[in-house]
Hints:
Elements: E1 8-15, H1 19-29, H2 34-42, H3 47-67, E2 76-85, E3 89-94, E4 100-105, E5 108-116
Antiparallel strand pairs: 1-5, 2-5, 3-4
Helix pairs in contact: 2-3
Amino acid sequence: MSAPAPLSHAVARFVRMSPQKGRLVADLVRDRFVGEALTILRFSERKKIAAILEKVLRSAIANAQQKSSNVDVDTLYISRIQINGGPVAKRIRPAPMGRAYRVQKRTSHVHIYLNEKGS
């Protein structure tokens, strides 16, 4: 039996954060109610990543309210959160003896899916 279709979702693409570090914060809020998730993100120590995830989560909440006017925000929870890798910008950093080190500036695509808990 497959999972129910999400009530709403939001996407942020080409975000300048590494997917690995973003997933660390995403794991904190996976399968939690949105109110609890917003509190966790607000007090997270990884400020930049938490701010990006909070913005996408607020967008998903707004999408749910727009889609169905009688939705109760208190019953919404994060049914799925994915942080996938985006394109990598490659830069050159000077190194000793005329060599060059490659610096990879990673980007991410953030997907947050919300659903309602059955009461």
